[in-house]
Design brief:
Layout lengths: L33 H15 L1 H9 L20 H18 L8 E4 L4 H11 L4 H7 L1 H12 L3 H10 L5 E7 L3 H16 L3 E11 L4 E2 L2 H4 L3 E15 L6 E7 L10 E4 L4 E7 L4 E6 L20 E8 L27 E4 L12 E3 L5 H10 L34 H10 L3 E12 L9 E10 L5 H9 L2 E3 L1 H13 L4 E2 L1 E2 L9 E3 L6 E3 L3 H8 L8 H4 L3 E3 L6 E4 L3 E2 L1 H6 L1 H4 L8 H8 L5 E4 L6 H13 L6 E5 L2 E2 L16 H8 L1 H9 L9 E2 L2 H33 L18 H22 L3 H22 L1 H4 L5 H22 L4 H12 L36 H23 L11 E5 L2 H9 L1 H8 L4 E4 L2 H4 E7 L3 H5 L3 H9 L3 H10 L1 E4 L2 E4 L3 E7 L6 E5 L5 E6 L4 H22 L9 E8 L2 H12 L60 E2 L16 H14 L1 H8 L3 E3 L11 E9 L2 E8 L4 E2 L2 H7 L4 H13 ...
Parallel strand pairs: 1-2, 6-9, 7-11, 15-24, 23-24, 25-26, 27-28, 35-37
Antiparallel strand pairs: 3-4, 3-14, 5-6, 5-13, 7-12, 8-9, 8-10, 14-16, 17-22, 18-19, 18-21, 20-21, 27-34, 29-32, 30-31, 33-34, 33-36, 35-39, 38-39, 40-43, 41-42
Helix pairs in contact: 1-27, 4-6, 12-13, 20-21, 21-22, 22-24, 22-26, 23-24, 23-26, 23-28, 26-27, 28-30, 35-37, 35-38, 37-44, 42-43, 43-44
C-alpha cells in the first residue's frame, strides 16, 4: 500500500517535483503514499526555511554544543553514515525542542590517503617518482578537484533523510583558515615538548607509500589470510652440524636477518634428526613445530633423539652463520650481529621458541637489537625495501621485486643453500591498509610523533569525565585502548594534506615551528594565501644560529590529526571567536559515531584536547555498531549484497528507515544485519496503524461537526458537563504522561535504545487498544458530548505523540501536526507565540511536552495491563480449541489473588467481554477451587549449591499446597537449610477443572489464571455466524469503494454448497496470502460500529470489536516496528492438555444453509447494531429493479454459500393495483409515477415521507397523492410490514423467521 511508494527507480533528488497535496486542509486520504508525503513536507520546510527558523526561535537559549565528525567526500553516503547521521539528528532535534540553541554545521574531511588513493587509481599512479614527475601542484590540484565531487549529492541525500544541518556554512579541512588552526594546535603541543622526531618500526602501507599510526593499522584486519610458514636453519659457528631453527611467516624479512632471539627462562633441547642426520636446537615445548606427529596419541617416536636440555640463557651469545651475505661487510653494525640474543617477548605459544631478528621490519626486533648492540645509534640499519615495498639494490638477487611476491623466490634460494628446513602455509588474521586494501608491512621509517605515552594518565582521567552509551565501550574498549596507547605517528610522506609547520636546518640542530600564517609571513617575508605544499615548500626561513636557511620538512600531517583538531579549527580558533569558544563551544555536549571510531576520531579528539587543555573534548557520546549485509557479511559494492539506501528511501520513506535503525540493537553498539523487510515492517506495523488511528480521528471529528453543527475545539471539548469519566481516557492519559516522563529521562541519558521501543510500543497501545475499545464512543454512540470528550482525549494523545516522535520521525509527525493544528484555537490566534502548540507553523518549532506528575498513574496502567493480560490469555485459550473470535463463548472466569484485583477487572468488564466475544465474566479469588499448586527449584541453584542442590530440589518439590501459599505470601522459604526467595522457587499451577468444558492458562507470575468455557451451543453458533456475515458485508463495502458513513441497502441470499463450490473454496484457501499492507480502512455503514484495525466485526458494549488481527504474537523484528501486543502470553496449566469434548458430526449442506439463515434471523438485532441497517433477502419482490447495484460477492460461510449485494437505497412502491388507486386507475400514470419518484433522491424523499406522511405529485395536470406506508415505502422492512405480497416473497425465499423478527421489533 502506502509503504510501497512509487516504483521505477530512485527519486531522491527530484528537484521541482509536483507536490501531492497531502498537507492541504481536509486531505486525509484512505491511502497515504509515505514517500510522496515526505516530499510535501520537504517543500513545506523549504517554504518556511524551517531549520533557520528553528535556530532563530531558539536563539538566546542555553547552548547545546554538538561536534559533527567530518566524513570523507570520496563517495556517496552508506548505511553507516545514515545511521550515525540519524542518531545525531534525533539528539540535536530533541535538544532544540527542549529549550536549547543547537547550531549544526556539516564538515568535510578533505585531505589524506582516501583522497590521494582515489587520484592514484584515476591517474594510474603507483610510485612517488610518478608524483614528482607530475608535480606536487598538479597532483594536489587533482586532489582538490575530486574532494567536492560528491558534496551536492551528500547535501541532497542527507536533507532527504530529514536531517537538519547547515551545509552552506560548512567547514572543509582543506581551507587555509582551517589549516591555520591545525598549525596552532601543532605548535602549541610542540611547545609543550609533546612532539618529537623519531626512527621507529611502524605499520607501513606500500599501496599508499606512507607509514600509518597504530590505530590506523587496526582498522582493517582481515581473517583467513594465507601466508607462507617456513622453518629456517642457522648453523652454529662453533658446531656447523648443529643449527638453531626459527619459524617465520615473513620470508621476505630473512635477507635482513641480523640476529636470533630466545627466552632465557625457557628450556631448549638439542635433538638429533634421525632422517636428516643433523642436530637442531629449539624450544622443548615446541618440538611439534619440527615433528608434527610428536605428542599426539599413538606417537611411536623414531624421528629424533634428544641429546641434551639447556636453559635459554646457555644459548645467549652463540654465533651462527648468516643466511645471506648481503650485509656481511657493511660498516656501522655492532659486534653482536648474527648472535643469539634474549628477551621475554619470545613465547612458547607458536613457532620453535627461537625468533629471527630483522630490526628494520619488526618493532620488537628493533628494540632487542638496539639494546644488544646489534644496531648502533647513528650507525647503519639494513632496510633494503623502498617506499613502494620493493627490494633495493642492497639485495641484488631480488632487486625490484615486491616483498610479498618475493617469498617463494627467497625460500627457493634457501632450499638451494640447505638452509630451509620446511615450508608450509598458515591461515591467520593480518592487517591491511584501510585505504589501498594492500597488506601492511612493518618498516623502520623516520616520523614525527606525539608523546601520547607521557600523557596516558591524563587521558584515562579525562575519559572518566565523559559519559558513553553504551557504557561498556568507555569502560572496556576505549579505556583499554588508552591504557595501552603508544606514541602517535602524525607525519605522512604524502602531498595532499596540511604540511608540517616545521622548518629545520640542514644539520637538524635548529628547528622553527610556525603557528600561523602571519608568523610564516613575518619569518619569510613572503605573502601567504594558501598553506598547501605547492605554496609553501619553497619558502625558507633565515637561521638565527648562523646555519644558513631553514627548509620545511617534506611530510604532511596525518588526516586524523586534522579531524582531531575539528573542535578548534571549525571556528578558526584561536584567531576568531576565542571568547565564545572558551565560554560555550568546548567541550562538546554531544558527539556520535561508530564503534570503529574508538580507535579513530574519538581517540584523536581525546589526545589533542588532553594535550592542549587537559580536558576531554566531549561530555556525552553515543556509539553505534556496524551495519552489515543481511547475510552478516560486510556491505560490499562489489558483491552488491545490500539494497541502495536511495532506493529504500524512495520505496518506503526516510522515516521508516530512520525508525528501523534507531529501534535496533545497532544503537547499543551491536551489529545490525540490514533487512529491507525490516524497513517495510516499520511501515506495516507502526506507521499504518498510527495513520489509521489519526485518519479515524479526523473522520470522527468531521462526523461530529456534521451531525452536531458545532466546530470541534480540542481545548474546550474535554470539559463538557454531564459526561462520566471514562476508564480508557484515564488510562491513555496516564500512559502518555508516563511515556513523556520516561522519554525525557532516557533522552537525558542518551539511551535511544530505550526510547524508540517505548514509543513504538505506545503506538501499539494507542491503535490496538485505545482506539479499538473506544470506537463506538468516538463515533458518537454515547452522544455528542461524550464523543467530544473522547475526541479531545484522542487529540491530546495524537498531538503529544507527534511532538514526542518528532525527533525520530520528522516527516510523519509534521504531517500529523499540520492537520491537527488546524483544529487548535491557537492556529487562529494572531497573538499566540510562534512556538506555541497550534500556532507554530511546524511541529519542530514546538517544545517536547512536559509531563504532568498528577496525571501519571502507574496503578491505572497496571489495571489495564491486567485487563490486557486477560484478553491475551483468553485469545490463546480460544486458539487452543480453534474457536474463532467471531464465535462467542458463554463465560470467561478469571482467578486472581485478591478481591481488589477482581474488583478492578470487573470495572473493565465491558472491554473484556467485547475483546473476547464472551457473554459473561466471572472473577474468583478461590484459587484452590480451580488450580492445584506445586513448586520447583530453579536450576540455576545447582551452580551455587552443587552437591546440596539435590536435597533442596527434592525438598521444594515436596512442599504442600499450604506450604506453597505461605511461601507466596511471605516471599521466602527455608529448604534443607537454605533460605530461598521467589526467584529461586517457581510456583506451578495445574488446572483441576473439567478440561472437556474449559481451557485454562496462567500468567507467567502465576498471579492470574484465565479459564474459558469452550462449550458451544446453537445460540453461540448463531452469534458467531452473524459476526461472519457482518464481516463479509464490511469487506464488500471496502472492495466496492464506499466511503465511511455512506448508506446502502444490503441484500443476501443463502444456498447450499455444491461440489464446484467446495473445489473453488479449496483452491482459494491454497493460494491465499496475507493482504498487502494499506492505509485504507474498512468503510462502515452510517451508525455502524465497524471493525477495528484487525478486521471487521460486530460492535460491542464499549466500542467496536476487531477481528482476529491485533493478536499479540508478532514476530520480533530488528529495528523498526514490532507487532503491538497486550499482556504477555501465558502458560497453559498441564491439565489443560486433556482432550476437548468429542467433535460433533459436520452438518449436511442443507443443514448448514438452514443454520446460516436461522442465525441471520435470530441475530437480526446484533447485525443491525453492527451494520447500522437491516439485511433483507435478495428476491425480485424485495430488491426493486430500479435499485442501483454497487457491489456483489458470494463466498462460503460456515458450510453454506452466502451472496451479498450492496445497492443504493431506493423508495419502494406498493403493488400496481394500489398505485392505480392514486393514479385514478390509469396504468400509464402508474408508470409515470414510478419513473418520476425513481429520479428523486431517496434519502430526502424518505425523510419527507416520514415527516409528512404523504407525497403529492402533479403529472400532466392531474394530482396524485401517495401515502407513506401504502403507496410508498422508505425501506424494505416498512414494505414487509404493510404489503402481503412482500410478506409472501420473504416466506418463499426462506426468510420467514427474519421477517417475523423485523415485524415484531
Amino acid at each position: 500500500g502506502g509503504a510501497a511508494g512509487g516504483a521505477g527507480g530512485a527519486r531522491l533528488p527530484r528537484p521541482g517535483a509536483a507536490p501531492s497535496g497531502s498537507l492541504k486542509a481536509g486531505t486525509v486520504p484512505s491511502r497515504l503514499e509515505f514517500p510522496d508525503m515526505e516530499q510535501d513536507v520537504l517543500k513545506l520546510w523549504e517554504d518556511l526555511d524551517a531549520f533557520k527558523t528553528q535556530l532563530e526561535l531558539t536563539r538566546g537559549k542555553p547552548e547545546f554544543t554538538f561536534y559533527d565528525g567530518p566524513p570523507f567526500a570520496t563517495g556517496l553516503p552508506h548505511y553507516g553514515h545514515i545511521l550515525a547521521g540519524t542518531i545525531k539528528d534525533v539528539v540535536t532535534r530533541y535538544a532544540s525542542q527542549t529549550g536549547h540553541y543547537v547550531s549544526r554545521r556539516f564538515g568535510w574531511d578533505c585531505h589524506g590517503l582516501p583522497v590521494e588513493f582515489e587520484i592514484d587509481k584515476k591517474l594510474g599512479i603507483t610510485s612517488k617518482e610518478q608524483v614528482m614527475e607530475m608535480g606536487i601542484a598538479a597532483y594536489n590540484d587533482a586532489c582538490r578537484g575530486t574532494v567536492t565531487r560528491y558534496c551536492s549529492e551528500w547535501e541532497r541525500i542527507v536533507s532527504r533523510l530529514g536531517r537538519w544541518i547547515d551545509f552552506k556554512d560548512d567547514y572543509k579541512t582543506m581551507e587555509p583558515w582551517y589549516m591555520e588552526s591545525v598549525w596552532w594546535v601543532f605548535k602549541t603541543i610542540f611547545d609543550k615538548d609533546l612532539i618529537y622526531r623519531g626512527f621507529k618500526v611502524m605499520p607501513y602501507s606500500t599501496g599508499c607509500t606512507t607509514p600509518l599510526s597504530n590505530f590506523e593499522a587496526g582498522l582493517n584486519y582481515k581473517d583467513d589470510v594465507k601466508d607462507p610458514a617456513v622453518v629456517v636453519e642457522f648453523p652454529l659457528v662453533e658446531d656447523p652440524e648443529t643449527s638453531l631453527v626459527a619459524w617465520t611467516t615473513t620470508p621476505w624479512t630473512l635477507p635482513s636477518n641480523l640476529a636470533t632471539c630466545v627466552n632465557k627462562a625457557h628450556t631448549y633441547v638439542k635433538v638429533a634428526d634421525l632422517k636428516r642426520k643433523k642436530n637442531y636446537i629449539l624450544g622443548k615445548a615446541n618440538l611439534a613445530a619440527l615433528y608434527p606427529k610428536y605428542g599426539k596419541k599413538g606417537y611411536k617416536g623414531g624421528e629424533f633423539d634428544i641429546l641434551e636440555e639447556v636453559p635459554g640463557s646457555a644459548l645467549v651469545g652463540k654465533r651462527y652463520v648468516p643466511l645471506f651475505e648481503y650485509f656481511a661487510d657493511r660498516d656501522g653494525l655492532g659486534d653482536a650481529k648474527w648472535t643469539v640474543l634474549e628477551d621475554d617477548y619470545v613465547t612458547e605459544d607458536s613457532g620453535t621458541g627461537i625468533v629471527h631478528q630483522a630490526p628494520a621490519f619488526g618493532e620488537d626486533d628493533y628494540r632487542v637489537c638496539a639494546a644488544a648492540g646489534v644496531i648502533l645509534k647513528g650507525g647503519y640499519l639494513p632496510c633494503p625495501v623502498d617506499h613502494n615495498g620493493c627490494f633495493t639494490e642492497d639485495v641484488p638477487d631480488f632487486k625490484g621485486t615486491y616483498v610479498k611476491a618475493a617469498d617463494d623466490a627467497i625460500c627457493a634460494h634457501l632450499k638451494g643453500t640447505g638452509r630451509l628446513f620446511s615450508k608450509g602455509t598458515i591461515t591467520h588474521r593480518y592487517p591491511f591498509c584501510w585505504r589501498s586494501e594492500t597488506p601492511l608491512i612493518y618498516r623502520a621509517v623516520p616520523s614525527w610523533f606525539v608523546r601520547v605515552e607521557s600523557i596516558k594518565e591524563d587521558l584515562v582521567a579525562n575519559n572518566e569525565q565523559t559519559y558513553w552509551v553504551p557504557s561498556f565501550v568507555k569502560e572496556k574498549r576505549f579505556h583499554n585502548w588508552l591504557t595501552d596507547a603508544r606514541d602517535w605517528a602524525i607525519s605522512r610522506n604524502r602531498y595532499w594534506g596540511t604540511p608540517l609547520p616545521i622548518w629545520i636546518s640542514d644539520d637538524g640542530e635548529e628547528i622553527v615551528v610556525v603557528g600561523s600564517i602571519a608568523e610564516l609571513e613575518e619569518l619569510t617575508g613572503e605573502k601567504v594565501t594558501d598553506l598547501h605544499r605547492q605554496y609553501i615548500d619553497h619558502l625558507k626561513i633565515p637561521s638565527k644560529m648562523g646555519k644558513g636557511e631553514l627548509r620545511r620538512v617534506e611530510e604532511v600531517l596525518d588526516c586524523w590529526f586534522e579531524s582531531g583538531c575539528m573542535p578548534y579549527a571549525q571556528g578558526h580558533y584561536p584567531f576568531e571567536g576565542k571568547e565564545e569558544f572558551e565560554a560555550h563551544k568546548f567541550p562538546a555536549d554531544f558527539i556520535a559515531e561508530g564503534l570503529d571510531q574508538t580507535r579513530g576520531w574519538f581517540y584523536t579528539l581525546m589526545v589533542l584536547s588532553t594535550a592542549l587543555f587537559n580536558k576531554p573534548a566531549f561530555k556525552n557520546v553515543i556509539v553505534n555498531g556496524l551495519v552489515l549485509a543481511e547475510d552478516g557479511k560486510k556491505m560490499s559494492k562489489r558483491l552488491k549484497n545490500y539494497p541502495d539506501p536511495v532506493v529504500v528511501v524512495d520505496k518506503h520513506g526516510a522515516d521508516a528507515l530512520r525508525l528501523y535503525l534507531v529501534n535496533s540493537p545497532v544503537v547499543r553498539a551491536e551489529p545490525l544485519k540490514f533487512r529491507e523487510r525490516g524497513v517495510l515492517d516499520v511501515v506495516k506495523d507502526v506507521f499504518l496503524p498510527w495513520y489509521n488511528a489519526f485518519r479515524f480521528f479526523m473522520q470522527s471529528v468531521e462526523r461530529l461537526q456534521r451531525d452536531s453543527g458545532v466546530v470541534f475545539n480540542p481545548v474546550t471539548a474535554r470539559a463538557a458537563e454531564g459526561v462520566a469519566d471514562n476508564d480508557m481516557d484515564a488510562w491513555i492519559t496516564a500512559s502518555v504522561h508516563g511515556l513523556i516522563k520516561f522519554v525525557r529521562e532516557m533522552m537525558g541519558e542518551y539511551k535511544l535504545y530505550a526510547v524508540a521501543p517505548a514509543l513504538v510500543d505506545f503506538i501499539g497501545q494507542l491503535t490496538n487498544w485505545y482506539v479499538r475499545l473506544n470506537r463506538k464512543r468516538l463515533k458518537g454512540a454515547d452522544g455528542a458530548a461524550a464523543c467530544g470528550v473522547a475526541l479531545a482525549s484522542l487529540y491530546d494523545v495524537l498531538m503529544t505523540l507527534s511532538r514526542l516522535m518528532a525527533p525520530m520521525t520528522p516527516f510523519l509527525t509534521e504531517y500529523f501536526y499540520q492537520h491537527l493544528r488546524r483544529l487548535h484555537p491557537a492556529s487562529r490566534d494572531e497573538a499566540a507565540a510562534p512556538d506555541a502548540v497550534g500556532a507554530a507553523k511546524s511541529v519542530h518549532f514546538v517544545d517536547v511536552p512536559e509531563y504532568d506528575a498528577s496525571l501519571v498513574d502507574p496503578a491505572m496502567e497496571a489495571r489495564v495491563r491486567r485487563m490486557q493480560a486477560v484478553v491475551e490469555l483468553g485469545r490463546q485459550a480460544r486458539e487452543r480449541r480453534t474457536i474463532s473470535l467471531k464465535t462467542p463463548v458463554r463465560e470467561v472466569i478469571v482467578v486472581v489473588a485478591s478481591e481488589a484485583a477482581a474488583a478492578e477487572l470487573r470495572a473493565l468488564e465491558g472491554y473484556v467481554l467485547d475483546e473476547l466475544n464472551a457473554l459473561s465474566l466471572t472473577t474468583s479469588t478461590d484459587e484452590a477451587r480451580w488450580c492445584s499448586l506445586s513448586a520447583a527449584a530453579d536450576n540455576e541453584l545447582g551452580k551455587t549449591l552443587r552437591k546440596e542442590f539435590k536435597a533442596v530440589k527434592t525438598g521444594v518439590e515436596a512442599m504442600t499446597e499450604d506450604d506453597i501459599r505461605a511461601f507466596m505470601a511471605s516471599g521466602s522459604v527455608t529448604v534443607a537449610g537454605h533460605a530461598l526467595d521467589r526467584s529461586q522457587v517457581h510456583v506451578l499451577r495445574s488446572f483441576k477443572g473439567d478440561t472437556t468444558k474449559y481451557e485454562a492458562l496462567s500468567t507467567d507470575d502465576g498471579l492470574m489464571t484465565v479459564i474459558v468455557n469452550t462449550v458451544e451451543d446453537e445460540e453461540l453458533r448463531a452469534m458467531g455466524a452473524a459476526r461472519e456475515v457482518s464481516a463479509r458485508v464490511q469487506r464488500l463495502r471496502k472492495t466496492s469503494g464506499l466511503k465511511v458513513g455512506e448508506v446502502v441497502d444490503v441484500y443476501f441470499e443463502v444456498r447450499e454448497m455444491t461440489a464446484e463450490d467446495r473445489r473453488k473454496a479449496a483452491e482459494e484457501a491454497a493460494r491465499h496470502v496475507p493482504m498487502k499492507a494499506s492505509t485504507e480502512p474498512v468503510p462502515t455503514a452510517a451508525g455502524g460500529a465497524g471493525g477495528g484495525a484487525g478486521g471487521g466485526g460486530a460492535g460491542g458494549k464499549k466500542g467496536g470489536k476487531g477481528g482476529k488481527g491485533g493478536k499479540g504474537k508478532g514476530e520480533k523484528k530488528e529495528g523498526g516496528g514490532k507487532a503491538a501486543k497486550g499482556g504477555k502470553g501465558g502458560k497453559a496449566a498441564p491439565a489443560a492438555a486433556a482432550a476437548a469434548a468429542p467433535e460433533e458430526a459436520a452438518p449436511s449442506d442443507a443443514e448448514a444453509a438452514a443454520a446460516l439463515v436461522g442465525a441471520i434471523a435470530s441475530r437480526a438485532n446484533q447485525l443491525e447494531e453492527a451494520l447500522g441497517l437491516r439485511l433483507v433477502p435478495d428476491h425480485p419482490a424485495v430488491r426493486p429493479a430500479h435499485a442501483l447495484v454497487l457491489g456483489e460477492h458470494e463466498e462460503e460461510v460456515n458450510g453454506a454459500m452466502l451472496r451479498v449485494v450492496l445497492a443504493r437505497p431506493v423508495i419502494r412502491f406498493g403493488g400496481d393495483a394500489v398505485l392505480a388507486e392514486a393514479a385514478g386507475g390509469d396504468a400509464a400514470r402508474v408508470a409515470g409515477i414510478k419513473a418520476y419518484v425513481g429520479m428523486l433522491e431517496a434519502d430526502r424523499l424518505a425523510a419527507t415521507l416520514r415527516e409528512k406522511g404523504e407525497l403529492t405529485l402533479v403529472l400532466d395536470g392531474q394530482a396524485a397523492t401517495l401515502v407513506h406506508g401504502r403507496h410508498l415505502f422508505a425501506s424494505a422492512v416498512e414494505q414487509l410490514k404493510a404489503d402481503a405480497a412482500t410478506q409472501a416473497a420473504w416466506r418463499d425465499c426462506g426468510a420467514a423467521a427474519l421477517a417475523a423478527a423485523y415485524t415484531s421489533a
